[in-house]
Amino acid sequence: MTTVSSALAPLHWHAPEPALRILDQRALPAETIWQHCTAAEPVMQAIRTLAVRGAPAIGIAAAYGIVLGVRSGTQFDADLAQMCAQFAATRPTAVNLFWAIERMRVAGARTAGQPRPERLAALEAQAQCIAADDAQCCADIGRHGAPLLPDRGGVLTHCNAGALATGGIGTALGVIRTAVAMGKQLHVWIDETRPLLQGARLTAYEMAADGIAATLMCDNMAGHALKLGRIQAAVVGADRIARNGDSANKIGTYTVAVLCAHHGIPFYIAAPTSTVDLQCPDGDHIPIEERGAEEVTDPQGVRFAASGTAVFNPAFDVAPAALIAGIITEEGVARPPFSADLAAMVDRARARLDRRG
Ligand code: MRU
Fold first, then answer.
1. Hey, which residues are catalytic here?
2. Per CATH, is 140-356 categorized as 3.40.50.10470?
């Protein structure tokens, strides 16, 4: 099985204390700083500020944060409800957050009537289960997705959908890692991913850590690289996949999808079924987070634009289903027109989780 260095694991649960240790991704790659969270509020703040980021990772962080919050209270049910509401307000787009919160709510409700220590233990076990499941999902996504990549050639990715964003080897980067482990000779083309540079700071760091050949470029260079024939496939992660397959991911993903369509290059989404929102009919119904102007005017704290400049800073956009060649999940590869495949995959994943309790 493909693995990654534990240095790339963004979350560590320290049960005896208990505490959640969060790798502060804002400081990478220059510095490795761990936040030691013994209460829920610092975990919420880490999610809001992107110290922990990436759809599956914020779901896992919220699950552990809920454990910390409920433990420190006295009214299990009221505290659990309050924690679920507060974590749900941290970031709006990645549905994995709401999926993990719902699993925690159900785990808590299932223990109604039991003594408090047992209820707390059940919550903690559920958070650990969410983390372990995500690691397995990444491995399975890698297994299903790797055969889709060419035996040799360039693969474009955008943002960071790697180990740093998940509980395992990553989704898009999990596919790439598994393909490389199978012997495919791939060269990864990394969009830097303005404004917060998740591609430059995080994906390039992960590829270097694994010794996978990679080239970094500014976002506006991808079209030229495609035109030069350097790229044979694209694979990115997702924050929310609507029922029809429209997929929200980091801002700039739409541009990549359009460019790939223009050049006849297959564009794949890699995400666990926890990213699929069957309640959401299409991309127009996906809430898109807008973040502060300073991320654009003062990247990394350095003033780039005149003060007072008006700014548009959506954190995500939507790749339309019509431009997606396949959606790679832990249950297999969904193909256009997507709705039937996605619904069946979500059903299978739910049945698997129900069997585990
Ligand atoms: O704002 P971020 O850094 O949380 O955005 C992350 C992304 O857009 C990722 O591509 C997505 O969450 C998938 S992570 C496996």
1. 239
2. yes
Q: Where are the domains of the chain?
A: 6-139, 140-356
Ligand 1 atom closest to 159 (CA): 10
Ranges under pLDDT 70 in the chain: 357
pLDDT tens by residue, 235-254: 999 999 999 999 999 999 99
Q: What is the whole-number distance in angstroms between the Cα of residue 247 and the centre of ligand 1?
A: 12
Tell me, using a 6 A CB cutoff, whether residue 240 lines ligand 1: no
pTM of the predicted model, to two decimals? Answer: 0.97
Ligand 1 site, residue 197, Cβ cutoff 6 A: no
Distance 306 CA to ligand 1 centre (A): 29
Q: Does domain 6-139 have CATH number 1.25.40.10?
A: no
Pocket flag, ligand 1, residue 54 (CB < 6 Å):
yes
Q: Which residue matches tokens 């700014």?
A: 311
Distance CA 19, CA 65 (A): 9
- Phi first, then psi: give them for residue 341, nearest 5 degrees: -60, -45
CB-based burial label for 151 (10 Å; 0-12, 13-18, 19+): exposed
